[in-house]
Structures are given as structure tokens and as C-alpha cells.
């Protein structure tokens, strides 16, 4: 049940970001669901490995590298998922920030509802 709630929150976050950020687009609802699943898998398996590999650089750059890992992973997912496009690097940066903020808001909202 928790996985379905988390997937739903990620889908909502992606839809909100696609509404707010020009160039961050989906061709349909199926593409949104597939993107949410792929982002979840990438964040679970690939992101931690990259963060460990780039930890020294991330320390030197005060976390900028960790942020750029998020941006490149989001941009990379757009090449994997058919029907999901990110028009450029700047769009990926803005979308990554917006997606993080919207996800935090929705997750906190869901936590408060469960209490």
C-alpha cells in the first residue's frame, strides 16, 4: 500500500512540474506512470552508486555535484522513457529543483494526513 501511495505522489509531482516548467513534457498519462517508476528505480539503484563515486568531488563543491547528479539522472530518464521529454539542460535543472520542492511538499502533506 505504501508503494502505491508513493507512486501516486510521484505521478502527481511529475504532473505539477510538467505544468509549471516549459519543456518538461509528457505525451500521456501512461508516460507519466512509466517515468515515475523509472525515476524510482534509478533513484534506488543508480543514484547511490554515483553519489559514492563522486563523494570527494561533492565535498569539494559543497554539494553541487550531488545536485548535478540529480539533474543528469532526470535528463537521462527522458532519453529512456518514450513519451517523456526534457528540452534541454536548463529545463532539467529547473525541473529538478521544482520536482524536489513539489515532492517534499506532497510527502509532508501525506505524512500529516497519516497522523
UniProtKB/TrEMBL annotation:
It holds the Pfam family Phage_holin_4_2. It comes from Candidatus Woesebacteria bacterium GW2011_GWA1_39_21. Keywords: Membrane, Transmembrane, Transmembrane helix. This is Membrane protein. Coiled coil: none annotated. The chain crosses the membrane at residues 7-24, 30-46, 53-77, 83-106.
